[in-house]
Amino acid sequence: MRNNADFSQLTRDEKARLLDFAPHASASKARQGSGRTRPTFPSINCSMRELRDVSREAIEALEAANDPPSLFIRSGRLVRIRIHEKGQHLIEEVGIDALRGMLARCADFYKSGASGRRVPIAPPELVLRDILTMSQLQVPPLVGLSEVPIVRPDGTIFSAGGYDWISGFYYAAPEGLTILCIPEHPTEQEVRDAVALINELLEDFPFADAASLATAWAACLTPILRPAIAGPSPLILIDAPAAGTGKTLLADCIARIATGRPGAMMTVPRDDDEMRKRLTAVLMAGTTVVILDNVEDRLGLPSLACAITAPTWRDRILGANTEIVIPAQVTWLATGNNIRLGGDLPRRCIWCRLDAKTARPWKRSGFKHEDLAGWVETNRARLVRAVLILAAAWFARGRPRPEIPIVGGFQNWAITIGGVLKTAGIGGFLENLDNLYEEADAEAAQWEAFLGGVRDRYGKEPWTVSELAARMKEENAKEENAQEGGRLVDLLPENLAESFEKPQSFKRRLGNALARKAEVRFGELRVVRAGEKQRAVLWAVRTDEESEKASDVSLVS
User: What is the pLDDT of residues 440-487, one digit of tens each?
Assistant: First the structure.
């Protein structure tokens, strides 16, 4: 669209874009008169008529005007695409005020006045509320936004801009992004050139190993190939032993390729309820790349783990008793120094480790591109095309399946990304998962140490939560134990240690934690239910061998 143009000089389509609603071609026929043109809209009489009839005619006008689509249904709600003042496209729910403006631009509402004279009115609020409560509107469903050409599940590419009826995605084609035609069957030379360009982007980052480089490649591919992948995608961890290694820069470059803008960084709150609200906000807006930047505390909030794994996100609207269900078509990134994971998060992550092997990594020099973000911005069209060529090559060769570890819940993502990497000749994909589980899952190590301490004190004998808490309090009061480092409280997992000074809260959290960890193996130990005592659950720490013997005895008896 032209910049700073007078509104009267804009074309009909350009005016419609400014109004966030594109009139149907049939409504654009003009009447000639007194040197002015006026669109011909359907007339809707609101006098002495049933609400259902007025609403039906309003809906017909709305549906007729929705060509090309700019009004959609998402999670059972009417939504539209809005353009942020900085050019970012967002998904916005259509409320009463927005719907009133849309209807006013595609139909003439009136009441009958004296002597049968037609009195123009704004679309009545009762009609607006009635339409917003209806679930059977003939508008297309919206899965998500994309700011690059859409790769469909069958390998075809939608690059025309606007709504793609096959994938359900809306391609918000940015101005100035001109991507040359993508060959249906890329040649070996085209594949090599595409690989060389992505490697040029990544070559200055100090990857710890080939697996970390492959993960960085996966991070570049995922947001562009996301519409072609059924199901969720994992959280991509980008960490390093020290600040200044390039973690945030790498995440920012990935976001710039996918969106054309600097990455929108989001901090991780300590409160899970606050995290849930933030996730709902970014998913409702159709955000394509979510970056959790500079993670400091242990990362293990349940709402985040749920959002990463679930194909759809459920939540209640703040201040309302209504539930939303949103498609979670997101690429998840997290940056930090020696990121620690907890809860169910370790198995929902893949790992990119950077290590400059220097005390002051930020002082490094001699990079190929000193302003890498600027280089990405300048070469964005080429970088996007390189990814699309590699994807086209994988589809053209019959989508060969890669030999990769099983990644529970993310297999479709792993097969697609791993297949494209195999086509590109990039090795090491997902080969560092075991190291991730061992090094980043601090909670598992903490539980193993804690259960070992409990085992030392109780052996195979069972105990209640109250008995264990009382013993820990008794140990904590003895100075000699504190000096020797022999207190059980010192072995508590981090999330339980925070509440130790509040006895009632601590016992409740400890009991809930033991229930969640029941039968989970930590090294050779696991906590099991061992009966009841005065209506309280008895717990015991057992080895696998002891549990098997107990099971055999039970079967014999």
Answer: 677 788 888 899 999 998 998 999 999 998 888 888 877 555 545 568
Q: What does the pLDDT look like over 211-244, one tens digit per residue?
A: 999 999 999 999 999 999 999 999 999 999 999 9
Q: How many residues does the chain have?
A: 557
Q: Amino acid letter at 324?
A: I
**Identity at 385, one-letter amino acid code:** R
pTM over 0.85: no
Tell me the CATH number of domain 198-377+391-438, given options 3.10.105.10, 3.40.5.60, 3.40.50.10260, 3.40.50.300.
3.40.50.300
Q: How far apart are CA 432 and CA 241, in angstroms?
A: 16
* Domain locations in the chain as residue ranges: 7-142, 198-377+391-438, 442-556
Which residue reads 């003439």 in tokens?
A: 108
Given a contact cutoff of 8 angstroms between Cβ atoms, the answer to whether 415 and 402 are in contact is yes
Distance of CA 137 to the CA centre of its chain: 28
| Under 8 Å between Cβ of 464 and 539 | yes
DSSP states of 205-222: S-BSSHHHHHHHHHHHHH
Q: Is the peptide bond before 346 cis (omega within 30 degrees of 0)?
A: no
Q: Provide the token pair at 118.
A: 């037609």
